[in-house]
Design a protein that fits this description.
The complex is a heterodimer of chains A (126) and B (467). By secondary structure, chain A is of the alpha/beta class. Chain A has one domain: Response regulator (Rossmann fold, 3-Layer(aba) Sandwich), CATH 3.40.50.2300. Chain A has helices at 11-20, 22-26, 38-46, 67-77, 92-100, 113-125, and strands at 2-7, 30-35, 55-59, 82-87, 105-108. A five-stranded parallel beta sheet of chain A has the order 2-1-3-4-5, with helices on both faces. In chain A, strand 3 (55-59), helix 4 (67-77) and strand 4 (82-87) form a beta-alpha-beta unit. Chain A is globular, with a radius of gyration of 13 Å. Chain B folds into three domains: 6-176, Rossmann fold; 208-289; 296-456, Heat Shock Protein 90, CATH 3.30.565.10. Chain B is rod-shaped. Chain B has 467 residues and is α/β, with parallel strands linked by helices. The longest helix of chain B has 100 residues, at 153-252. In chain B, the strands form three sheets. Chain B has a five-stranded parallel beta sheet with strand order 2-1-3-4-5, sandwiched between helices. Chain B has a five-stranded mixed beta sheet with strand order 7-9-10-12-11, with helices on one face. A two-stranded antiparallel ribbon of chain B has the order 6-8. Classes of the chains: A alpha/beta (126), B alpha/beta (467). Chains A and B meet through helix 1 of A and helix 6 and helix 7 of B.
Chain lengths: 126, 467
């Protein structure tokens, strides 16, 4: 069972993850935790989900706490927490900042879900 | 060019030439020498039959280089020759009556036309002209002196000395002012070039600024469009997955509930695709509006009417967007305000943009504070050659840091999908460029935000450049 946390201020994004991982969720290969703000996601990681998330998938452009701030906060709690940034920004500046802040990978929107799944399951196997 | 001053003596009487030679050419000691060599040369001449007249050319002790002419025409030729060789005469002694040719006054008159810098001394025994007549012929000038014959040698020497020095000084002066003029011209040319360079640099900067804003815009468009594309592309993929699942289910099971669920999912997903396609379209449309420039027609209207119309529109749209939203709209419209030229749709867009921001901000504040009462105030004010529109809401306000950026393209504090960050930058462009007005925003964070538009009364709008 892979436990994924998805953080995106667009509610449709969360719906999309649920749809794309429908089979995996049904087969209990994947468990999804969805949050529409960085603050809520961080609170959950500090409390009920502490140590229970294998991978965080976070958007960058969000009001108030954006994806980079969330990434910094997550790294403060758990340096080894896997985080992928998911964003429509495809430029080097954003990619490099994500890497330098400790993101394990950077996924550009539109997300290629078959590729994302492969990444997730490979990381799990390794 | 000779370093000795050149003097031309023009007289039809050759004995006068000798007088000048004697007076200006030689000292007394030299004179004896001259007489001796003269006798010698006349003897030699008698023997050789040589008619050499040039007695002073080889004499290196003379102070002046003397040239002679017997007629006005001959003098003119010599002057022209000297001027073309850039070795002008410093002084010309001119007889008046020189039959059969033109007289001295006419010669001077003709020469002065082309060579106004020449210095003349008029020498005459009988007065064919008196001073008044000469002045009438030649005009009042410091370039012509009058000496009666017979000559006083000392006076001639003195005149020659002072006039040649005067000429030399004038020449120097002229050369100096020519040099100054050249310098001024050169400097003026340099300044012109520098001005041209500055202009070019300004143009380059403006173009770079345009390119930079184009770059910002392109990056903005890319980001804005990728979001809806992300959904369109992936939701349609998920529909394909569902269809596959439906096909499998039809073969293997007859579970109606499963099928219903899948149909429901396809329905929801299709709706989402349509929504995000519309979102992509509206982003592109707002871009097109942002870059429009021509074919816009201005109309004369009263700003109060425009506000009434578009405030209503903005409020209706805000109430449909924000559930349970109510706002007290207070309008204080100054009836003194006169009609002015507007592109009405564009002005409407400005009000829609400002007012929707206000309503959005107040609706957000209302979610946090239950007893909060949204209140929007619009004031208009006539002030001589301009009028003002002041729009104030009691919403969340804007921090100083954010206030600096509110007119930047693609700057938004709203969640993705809610704002494109173009509204206020377009509004600013419409007010400042298209309607030649000003637009400022003040705010007290947590308390209020106030926009002040100041617009001049216009008969017509200028054709604008496409940015």
């Amino acid at each position: 069972m892979i436990r994924l946390m998805v953080v995106d201020d667009e509610k449709d994004s969360l719906l999309l993850y649920k749809l794309m991982f429908r089979k995996e969720i049904k087969n209990q290969q994947v468990e999804l935790y969805c949050y529409d703000s960085g603050e809520k996601a961080l609170k959950a990681l500090k409390n009920e989900l502490s140590g229970k998330v294998d991978l965080v998938l976070s958007d960058i452009n969000m009001p108030n706490m954006d994806g980079f701030e969330l990434l910094k906060e997550i790294k403060k709690i758990n340096q080894r927490q896997n985080v992928y940034m998911v964003s429509a920004y495809g430029d080097d500046i954003h990619v490099n900042e994500a890497k330098s802040l400790g993101a394990s990978d950077y996924i550009s929107k539109p997300v290629n879900f078959p590729y994302l799944k492969e990444l997730i399951f490979q990381a799990r196997a390794a | 060019m000779s370093t000795k001053p050149k003097i031309l003596i023009c007289d039809d009487n050759e004995s006068i030439h000798d007088d000048f030679r004697f007076t200006l050419g030689f000292s007394e000691a030299q004179q004896e020498k001259r007489e001796l060599s003269s006798k010698l040369s006349s003897l030699i001449n008698e023997i050789d039959g040589d008619q050499s007249e040039n007695t002073q050319a080889n004499n290196d002790s003379v102070e002046y280089e003397l040239h002679f002419a017997k007629q006005g025409e001959e003098a003119m030729l010599k002057v022209v020759e000297a001027e073309t060789q850039n070795a002008p005469y410093s002084l010309i002694f001119m007889d008046v009556r020189m039959p059969p040719g033109i007289d001295g006054i006419q010669t001077i008159k003709l020469l002065r036309k082309d060579y106004p810098h020449l210095e003349f001394v008029i020498c005459t025994a009988f007065s064919d002209y008196n001073w008044e007549e000469i002045a009438k012929e030649l005009g009042h000038t410091d370039k012509v002196l009058f000496v009666p014959k017979p000559f006083d040698p000392t006076a001639i020497k003195q005149i020659a000395l002072s006039q040649t020095i005067k000429f030399a000084l004038n020449q120097e002066n002229q050369a100096y002012s020519n040099k100054l003029e050249t310098m001024v011209e050169k400097r003026t040319e340099q300044l012109k070039q520098q001005l041209e360079e500055i202009k070019n640099m300004q143009e380059t900067l403006v173009n770079q600024e345009k390119l930079a804003s184009l770059g910002t815009m392109t990056a903005g468009i890319a980001h804005e469009l990728k979001n809806p594309l992300h959904f369109i592309s992936n939701f349609s993929d998920s529909i394909l997955n569902i269809i596959q699942e439906v096909n499998e289910n039809i073969k293997t099971t007859t579970d109606q509930e499963d099928l219903n669920e899948l149909t429901e999912l396809m329905f929801t997903t299709s709706k989402k695709i349509k929504e995000h396609a519309a979102r992509a379209n509206s982003i592109i449309e707002s871009m097109l509006i942002h870059s429009r420039g021509e074919g816009i027609v201005d109309e004369t209207e009263n700003i109060n009417n425009i506000i009434n119309k578009y405030l209503n529109l903005a409020y209706v749209s805000a109430r449909s967007l924000h559930s349970n939203f109510h706002c007290q709209n207070i309008l204080n419209l100054d009836t003194e305000i006169k009609d002015s030229a507007f592109v009405i749709q564009d002005m409407g867009r400005v009000f829609i943009n400002i007012l929707s921001n206000s309503y959005y901000s107040m609706s957000e504040k209302a979610k946090q504070a239950k007893d909060f009462k949204p209140r929007l105030e619009v004031n208009t004010k006539h002030c001589e050659d301009a009028f003002e529109v002041i729009i104030k809401d009691n919403g969340e306000g804007i921090s100083d840091e954010k206030l600096k950026h509110i007119f930047d393209p693609f700057y938004t504090t709203k969640p993705t999908g809610v704002g494109t960050g173009l509204g206020l930058s377009i509004s600013y462009d419409i007010i400042t460029n298209q309607h030649q007005g000003s637009m400022i925003c003040k705010s007290q964070p947590g308390e209020w935000t106030e926009f002040t538009l100041r617009l001049p009364y216009l008969n017509h709008l200028q054709k604008r450049n496409v940015a």
